[in-house]
Task: inverse folding
């Protein structure tokens, strides 16, 4: 039982347990047993913090079903190993070397030192952001739905926002709040902070603390921090401008809005493909250009060590730096005056190739098993599932059982990770004691 197999099987065990709970009569509003595929799909989407759904969550699941869904989203957002560590900390168990190695790999941390303390800070950070989101969203939901329902709605959407899941208890998701600045900026803020990664948040906190205390030794930002923040900012700004231009005159999306509302809607639509899944406009009514742009943003996804999916912003930035190095005739790949190690470049290429293979294979299989679906819609759902985003053109509930099972497998692969899943299947790589002779070939 290797570490990668522990993580992969751990996620699978949580998914199956969640599916069993969501099948129970107490989880549905009408008090009947749920369809197994529906329960499995919802559980997978929750644990993989995706947000795709084949039913109307608010009308299908009871309070207990929705509570189970929120707990699964929270476990999935924290990660299997982090959630397990939290439970072991509550039980007072001490951590051995194997436990720390598993945590180190699941959190993508470079060393073993301070792993348990990192988990504690992750839990505190998660609680802080989610509670802040709850109190802000209560100012909108409580006056509209009353205290009890308003508080629950705030909790439900805050947890889903920070964990980058896209579940909503409203039939139209958040379309009814397209003109609400509080909902738009609170949800988008939680999505961004949940998607940039805990390490980035901690570095930002340490830097602000040193500045506030006027410490003579200030925190120096890591390369990961610089790459994540700048890449995220550029993608958000360019995405906002692109959606504003592409949907400006579309009568089914931005056409009837004022310019400030169009700008806010474009901002929200640029944020939510970063593996969140909420929407304030009808995705199925967007132009094809906007759909392709959304697919690209969903494929890039969030950042390492976060609650989001996709190939990650750092992977995308390394590819960009590789291209820049080739154009400039450089043999070394550099970023912010730092050289990127060759093993990391190989890992980047493997992640991108494996991700493209999974996404396109999933889209082709969905198209073959559901001939009535257009390919762009099938590709949109497949990338949304793989990137654990949750945005949908509306075809997910209409897919055949085989099509839903394909999406279930795609969501699982996207959350666990292509390389980790391969490692779980084939075991840990064994180093070679020899090298082959080099020979060049034509490329491009």
Result:
């Amino acid at each position: 039982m290797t570490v990668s197999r522990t993580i992969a099987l751990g996620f699978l065990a949580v998914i199956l347990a969640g599916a069993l709970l969501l099948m129970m009569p107490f989880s549905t509003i009408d008090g009947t047993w749920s369809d197994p595929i529906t329960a499995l799909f919802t559980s997978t989407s929750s644990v993989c913090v995706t947000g795709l759904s084949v039913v109307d969550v608010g009308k299908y699941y009871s309070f207990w079903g929705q509570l189970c869904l929120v707990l699964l989203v929270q476990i999935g957002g924290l990660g299997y190993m982090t959630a397990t560590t939290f439970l072991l900390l509550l039980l007072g168990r001490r951590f051995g070397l194997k436990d720390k190695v598993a945590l180190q790999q699941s959190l993508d941390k470079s060393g073993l030192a301070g792993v348990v303390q990192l988990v504690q800070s992750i839990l505190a950070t998660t609680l802080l952001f989610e509670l802040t989101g709850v109190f802000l969203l209560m100012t909108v939901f409580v006056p509209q739905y009353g205290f009890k329902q308003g508080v629950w709605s705030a909790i439900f959407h805050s947890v889903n926002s920070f964990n980058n899941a896209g579940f909503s208890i409203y039939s139209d998701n958040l379309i009814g709040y397209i003109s609400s600045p509080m909902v738009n900026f609170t949800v988008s803020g939680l999505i961004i902070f949940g998607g940039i990664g805990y390490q980035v948040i901690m570095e930002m906190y340490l830097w602000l603390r040193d500045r506030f205390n006027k410490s003579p030794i200030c925190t120096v930002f890591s390369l990961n921090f610089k790459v994540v923040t700048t890449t995220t900012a550029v993608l958000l700004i360019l995405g906002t401008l692109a959606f504003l231009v592409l949907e400006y005159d579309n009568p089914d999306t931005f056409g009837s809005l004022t310019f400030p509302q169009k700008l806010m809607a474009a901002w929200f639509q640029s944020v939510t493909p970063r593996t969140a899944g909420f929407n304030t406009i009808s995705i199925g009514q967007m132009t094809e250009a906007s759909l392709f742009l959304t697919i690209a943003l969903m494929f890039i996804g969030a950042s390492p060590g976060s609650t989001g999916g996709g190939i990650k912003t750092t992977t995308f930035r390394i590819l960009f730096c590789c291209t820049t190095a080739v154009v400039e005739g450089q043999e070394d790949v550099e970023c912010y005056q730092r050289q990127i190690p060759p093993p990391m470049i190989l890992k980047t290429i493997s992640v991108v190739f494996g991700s493209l293979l999974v996404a396109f294979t999933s889209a082709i299989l969905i198209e073959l098993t559901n001939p009535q679906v257009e390919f762009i819609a099938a590709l949109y759902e497949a990338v949304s599932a793989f990137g654990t985003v949750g945005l949908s053109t509306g075809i997910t509930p209409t897919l055949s059982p085989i099509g839903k099972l394909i999406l279930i497998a795609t969501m699982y692969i996207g959350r666990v990770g292509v390389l980790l899943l391969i490692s779980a299947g084939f075991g840990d790589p064994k180093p070679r004691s020899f090298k082959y002779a080099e020979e060049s070939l034509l490329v491009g």
Summary: The chain has a mean pLDDT of 86. The chain has one domain: 3-426. Residues 3-426 form one domain. The two ends are 42 Å apart (CA to CA).
